[in-house]
Amino acid sequence: MLSVCINDLATQNNPVDILCITEHNMIDGDEVYLTIPNYKLASYFMRQNRHGGSCILIKNNLKFRILNEITKLSICNTIECSAIELLEHQIVVLCIYRPPNNSAGSIDSFFTTLNKILNNVSKHGRKIIMCGDFNIDTLKHTKLSIEFTEILTRYNLKLKFNQVTRFANKTCIDNIAHNIRACKGSIKELALSDHYAQIVKVPVKKTCNIKYWFILKRDYSQGNRAIFIKYLNQLTNSDVYSCLDANTAYNIFHDNFIMLYNLCFPIKKVKMHNRSRPKWISRGLKICSKRKCQLLWQYRHNPNQTTKTTFKAYAKKYKTIIRLTKKSQNDYFIKSALNKNKATWKVINDIKGKYPNEGVAQLIINDVTINNPQDIANSFNDFFLDINKNNTSVPHESSNRLTYNSNSIFMRPTTPDDINKIIISLKNKNSAGYDNVTTNIVKDVAHIISEPLSFIINLCIEEGTFPDKLKISVIKPVFKKGDKTNMSNYRPIALIPIFGKIFEKVMFNCLYIYK
Length: 515
Prior knowledge:
This protein has 15 helices and 17 strands.
């Protein structure tokens, strides 16, 4: 339902880049279910029970930094805060929830912590936007509201709204404080809760926000695959069989293969679209959303059993329609896909909020922020090298002496049939090594390349060598969990060439059967 509301706001010239939500009622582990198309969960605070909390969702194209030092200041049931900084605009966004606890100790603790948070983020003259449900009615001049506004004034912050934000008790307990000039605000009824939604438009410098872009991609069409098989079948590989050196033989095989590979599978530009709304948000759902808001308005201005029953029945039906529409769209997507397993997992990952790994935008090393891609790559290279050096241990000769075994291992020469079986057994993956050769293409020509590969691998076994080009791998950092600016939260994975995997499988088979 929130996705439909966001789309409605975008069509009304009110696009939402950042969502601040309080009282999300999630506990640890529930964050994977908070999935809104085109948005990612940037920062959150959760309790141990399903009450309260705050979180910030941000559009996928915006760069940000999580302010963990601010989130750590949160106190459960007193002040629950999540915080980020927009890197391109240097704006700090805070989302705060204060539970309606007016005991003296809770209020003092709230104001003390709020002072710490604002003192921390106001350094260096940064711009601040603080949203939240403060449960402090600023329409009334009470001791609580006066102290709240005085703290904001101390940090040059002013409240944007001075009108009812909760219709049930005619109070202004939800608000947005900021220190940015020329901000425009509005209040919207989204019919999602008994609170109105507050919207603030902040004037910022224009950033690149294109609707489509181009990527380079190889053309693996069936016609190109047939041509590749035809040309590769015409190679005699006589120059490979005439070599007595394994490294030279592989270089010749590799160069011939890559030459035909690049010739038959040219790189072309593919247009990619930045879809602003999911396909399941139809015109009918938008009409239903507006009708729900109308019924809620009628109930709030004329509260009786009839309007209440009508609104609740329609809201329940509306929720069911959304669920069935999503299911229908997912079923159609899977049924119309060529690779149904891949399509099914895409639907599952979309529901769970798992998206492809993005590039590392920045790192913080020794309190220094690094944004340059080349510097980030060099830092990861040094970091992963140090890990390998630290983990490398040389065993002591006295405690780990190898015993002599007269029964040495025998490496049986591999056959083309063995190579063909190994290639067919490999998993279908789109990932490739530095040569960009994928598993699917190699499987198409397994019956052709199995003989020269068998010859090369047998040469390697006889010489006890390994081709130089198979020693090259692409190392990628994969994020595990925690702070994305901390290198220790990444693990390296190596993408090795597909022909290297074939060689490894041959060695594995030989070692596995040895007794």
